[in-house]
């Protein structure tokens, strides 16, 4: 008995005709009939009653049909599982991220990925702006990009959530004497700020938040990295607005929520024909990424 013979039995039973079953399967009617006769001889049982009106199952055929359907379904599931495992058993996953999220939501997902798919290493490249992520995807330079949604990207996008920004202040800042974890951004309007370089996407977030609060921040420093922003703010050079997941749990300064709140949407986006590895990584990122 073969899996192909099982498929022939199922087709004849569903079509009620050897001719229609052969057409559906793309084989000749004599070839199909020959395979069914061989199967009946092997089973020593007649599976179909053949007549002018078509083919109907005998009692033996009806009993056999359920087992044939289960065997075919099981074989297809095994094939799908093997193919999926094979596609995730080699090569590499190319990941593009913003500098500001590489140390935020990505490491936890990579840790889980390495344990689940040790044969698919991750190659990561950082970019300073969301539009550069989109360019990397458009030229085929990455399998998955992680950052704010891009206005120039037209492919699939999976929203991961919103990251919250916090104000970093030195430990001796007078605003910390109040019993509140919220600081109105307007209260910092007259201070020089630790800002991000213009080519860094975070500069748009800070400029937009300050504009909403009614002021343009004065520049104490322009830097490229969030960890530098935290250190300079702790040193007292000026307040800094930093993604909350980029601030160490223990550090010498203090973090406060701004009023109004500052949030940024983060998403994972892929090409229209994502690889199995890309789809699998996005699921890991959605479940284990730290926002």
TrEMBL record:
Keyword annotations from UniProtKB, A to Z: DNA-binding, Transcription, Transcription regulation
Gene3D superfamilies: 3.40.190.290, Winged helix-like DNA-binding domain superfamily/Winged helix DNA-binding domain (1.10.10.10)
SUPFAM superfamilies to which the protein is assigned, alphabetical: Periplasmic binding protein-like II, Winged helix' DNA-binding domain
Pfam families: HTH_1, LysR_substrate
Domain HTH lysR-type: 1-58
Residue stretches in coiled coil: none
Statement: the UniProt record of this protein carries the keyword DNA-binding: yes
Family label: Belongs to the LysR transcriptional regulatory family.
Name of the protein: LysR family transcriptional regulator
Organism for this UniProt entry: Streptomyces mirabilis
